[in-house]
Amino acid sequence: MTPSSPFAPDVEQRVRASFARQELINTLNGEIALVSPGELHISAPFDKRFTQQDGFLHAGIVTTLLDSASRRDPACGTGCGYASYTLIPANSRVLSVESKVNLLNPAQGERFRAEGRVVKSGKTISVCEGRLFALQKGQETLVAMMQATMICIREVQHN
Amino acid sequence: MTPSSPFAPDVEQRVRASFARQELINTLNGEIALVSPGELHISAPFDKRFTQQDGFLHAGIVTTLLDSASRRDPACGTGCGYASYTLIPANSRVLSVESKVNLLNPAQGERFRAEGRVVKSGKTISVCEGRLFALQKGQETLVAMMQATMICIREVQHN
Amino acid sequence: MTPSSPFAPDVEQRVRASFARQELINTLNGEIALVSPGELHISAPFDKRFTQQDGFLHAGIVTTLLDSASRRDPACGTGCGYASYTLIPANSRVLSVESKVNLLNPAQGERFRAEGRVVKSGKTISVCEGRLFALQKGQETLVAMMQATMICIREVQHN
Amino acid sequence: MTPSSPFAPDVEQRVRASFARQELINTLNGEIALVSPGELHISAPFDKRFTQQDGFLHAGIVTTLLDSASRRDPACGTGCGYASYTLIPANSRVLSVESKVNLLNPAQGERFRAEGRVVKSGKTISVCEGRLFALQKGQETLVAMMQATMICIREVQHN
Question: Which position among B101, C63, D41, D102 has the lowest Cβ density within 10 Å, counted as fewest Cβ atoms?
């Protein structure tokens, strides 16, 4: 657990476990750069396989990174209300309802960092904002911004 | 050229050439299913490498298919005004300004088809709508819908 | 009840009663033009009080009409599942989670018609699309399009 | 000119003049609370005429305030590039391409403040974010957030 994680160790563990099951993030060689209550950062290298016709990272991959950074976050119990985390059955799931992405600059760089932050954390609905930065020659450029809605599905346990 | 393409052969050729340069679409094994003025369909198989934690196609890949179906379309000269297509310098480019995707059903299936349609085709800005369908055991399900904005950049030629 | 309403009279009644409580729609002199399962049309006249700096209807009023056309619809029991309408407690409410509007043409005309349609009707979340048309000298122009998310809140009754 | 306006007096003047021509903002009794490069705040009182069925400010009016806060901003020369402001013909116009609003809390309060900020200011396209706060009994609540795209139309002057 990094110093930036002031919550219980099992929350970070749970985020990392869920993250590991995301084949696409593995395929993109993405990794968690930061886990903290209400915030998650994902980092991934440039990969020619995921580019559009101009050689930049495809808008869909930009969305993938932003969506994952936002979605994983609620999963750690903050998006669905960090305070009530212990009340959430362990098999609850967080799904994207919708996301809206504005593309601000070409997604070119050696590496990318997606930042997801929970703005409003409700019982059912959470709203997140995301920012994607490209890192090139030591410089960062804001590539895209997202505003997204997540839903927390509390699965009924049949004992 | 398919019977569904009532416009000049070089338009479809140009769409296919631009499509072929999209590494991500190649990586996804995507192919053009339909090209017609103002409409483009893309088809792609399920691929475990591009799934999220529940084994469904990742929202980012859903967005990739929808965005590509919408973006390629304007590139064929319809989104930026099909009537004025011959006036557009051959090196004009169509870029995504923003897109908004609602996820309606889990993206599970053997194959997916993204449909992009131009709703408003302006000189600079075009607005498209997209629908993604999952095909499973001969049945189609609407998986996601998109509303997106594209910009046509007319590059100045220095002769 | 108009011939376009194939469902029980109390559904249309309920829509109209809820509509009547919307002060803003009254202020805009809006009226219901069509109620049918999964679809609602609202009509409103041009009003100088609600214009932006160029004399066109303000984007916020365009959104108001589209949002109302979409929101009222689920309220009639279709958005939250028409089939399960009788199961919904009478005091359930439909709220907008988010909406995204593209402005396609200037909102100028003598009258406006907003059409809202439910694309996906889920137990909790419904997704709607809307189209706003301006009517001028017998001609219709598509002014704006919306993609929106609604949530159905089932209020607990304490008897 | 307020101390928060570090740019030329005619910029603020121009914003206020354009603002004054917005009938809807006048109808809402809206006023400019802050003008600074890349940022504009609008304040408006609660008004029963603009409510929805629960007595809260209607989502369309929430959008109106956010849209106006964002749109006026580029108009002051920052959205279309503050540095290049003197190069912009005085009759250029800023129009909304699209906006997406998430509704986070009921719009109830004595007064509302909409904050618009330019995140990316391009030659043609600008992207803004907005936040709407409700003020009630000395407390502020975040009611809604917006992510919007504006276009700067440089009108050709025929001399």
Answer: D41
